[in-house]
Amino acid sequence: MRLNASAPPRPTAPHRLPLVLTAVLMLVGGLLLALPDRAGAAVDVLISQGRPATSSSVEDSTFGPEKAFDGVSTTRWASAEGIDPQWIRVDLGPSATVSRVKLVWEVAYAKAYRVEISADGTTWTSLATESAGNGGTDDWTGLTGTGRYLRVYGTARGTPYGYSLYTVEVYGTAGTTPPPTGAFTVVAAGDIAAQCTASSSSCAHPKTAALAQRIAPSFYLTMGDNQYDDARLSDFRNYYDKTWGAFKAQTRPVPGNHESYDPAGAFAGYKSYFGAIAYPQGKPYYSYDQGNWHFIALDSNSFDDAAQIQWLKDDLARNTKGCVAAYFHHPLYSSGGHGNDPVSKPVWQILYGAKADLVLNGHDHHYERFARQNPSGQAASDGIVEIVGGMGGAEPYAIETVQPNSQKRISGPYGVLKLDFTDTTYTWQYVGVDNQVKDTGPTYTCH
Asked: Which of 92, 156, 323, 370 could form a disulfide with 96 if both were Cys (CB 3.0 to 4.6 A apart)?
């Protein structure tokens, strides 16, 4: 119910002012007591603005899920068109309580959807259900729910388009962690440029490059085997440069085994093409910072090089950032055709000892994510999250032997990793070249 209050009459004498104010305050207080639902609404606090958001898909990078939580009424999230179901999710922080959810739909609205809450992003409890939506504004009040993640899960579109929300406002009590700061996005992929061009419909790296550009990240990571088959300079120029080369200056690469096959000499084409981008410190391994994150780029072709190992130890000792991510070509653990590669275990031991958070790899041509584990492959709360992201454009490899702690495996659909970082957390999505989100990782807090 809307409470309408008219202005009180102007007092005829100054001494009447306190009496009039007292009367008005008593009237308003009495109305609020008589309308407990309205009184409760007065204490609702917006807790979703600026929080990390993910979604099942995006129409393109200009309609990302964060747009529904940015506090701007003219920006919006839009899913891919013509596909059910779709969802958008926000991280409210641990143990948030929710009392109200307000949705402002664009023309592409949901006819049927659920508002759900979850403590872990896996098991969901329904807070509200709509089966005959007609767009516009839906304001769900009187809700009772506790959890970390809230999502709007659309099951039936109201139009032939997708789902699109200008605003998702969640009210209640925020979790115990403050809103994250220093947010940025990174796109990552390995095993990229086969010897083909966009003139071939089966050529994948032009499609992954276009997807990577649509996401518009702060920078790009490549996890080796950037160019196939022998990574000659002429191959880089004829293939990789025509697609991923469009954002070469924003790319932080590492070499794979195929970069070492160059007839002109190991890494000759790689070094000539990338130059100081790949050798900023004069070596094929280097580090840099972004926000509260320290990134370490390593050459896993030479993990037996004592100089690189000592450099890694020294670099970690100098690090002052709170979160650490490393990336290199050969994964210690993989369920693909190449399988586990023990060459990476000594590096894992060093990273684990330094409380590193995340390792990104290529080599096996599939997507896979692992739960936190230690260098021996045992599940551990203080372990490292490993992601294999080898679907940048080379021919996919089948999943062969599923490894312990492997949580999700995808082989076939080409795509890239969209990694979202804050000063204290990280999460990611595996996005296919069809703009569909194939997998969403958990939101982890840095060690």
From this structure: 92
Looking at 58-62, 200-204, 218-222, 418-422, which range is the least confident one?
A: 58-62
CB 137 within 8 A of CB 104: yes
pTM for this predicted structure: 0.73
DSSP per-residue codes, 80-119 = PTT-S-EEEEEEEEEEEEEEEEEEEE-SS-EEEEEEEEES
pLDDT recorded at residue 177: 64
Cβ atoms of 350 and 309 closer than 8 Å: yes
Helices (H), 95-226: 205-215
pLDDT confidence bin for 373, thresholds 50/70/90: very high
Cα 125–Cα 127–Cα 132 angle in degrees, nearest 5: 120
Phi, psi torsion values for 198, nearest 5 degrees: -65, -15
Residue pair 391/417 in contact (Cβ under 8 Å)? The answer is: no
Burial pattern 315-336, b for ≥16 Cβ within 10 A else e, equals bbeebeebbbbbbbbbbbbbbb
What's the N-to-C CA distance of the chain in angstroms? 48
